Amino acid sequence: MTLDHRLIAMLVCPLCKGPLEAGRDADNRLVELECPADKLAFPIHDGIPVMLESEARPLATAATPAPQLVP
């Protein structure tokens, strides 16, 4: 079962009410909805998005290099 793209467009983050992005696995299957603002990913189980903060996982962020001071 897959989520309709219109449903994904209507869903918002339960915390900040911001837009969500589709998170896909290596096989391009939709597996979670990601909130870039809160850096959380909400899982999708059996085609149903679980929009609970307690079920969300933190998104992995790329480490940003420390700024270098110029003498």
UniProtKB/TrEMBL annotation:
SUPFAM superfamilies the UniProt entry points to: Trm112p-like (SSF158997)
Gene Ontology CC entries for this record: cytosol
One matching Pfam family: Trm112p
Highest taxon of source: Bacteria
Record InterPro entries: Trm112-like
Membership in a protein family: Belongs to the UPF0434 family.
Protein name: UPF0434 protein LPC04_12235
Species name: Scleromatobacter humisilvae
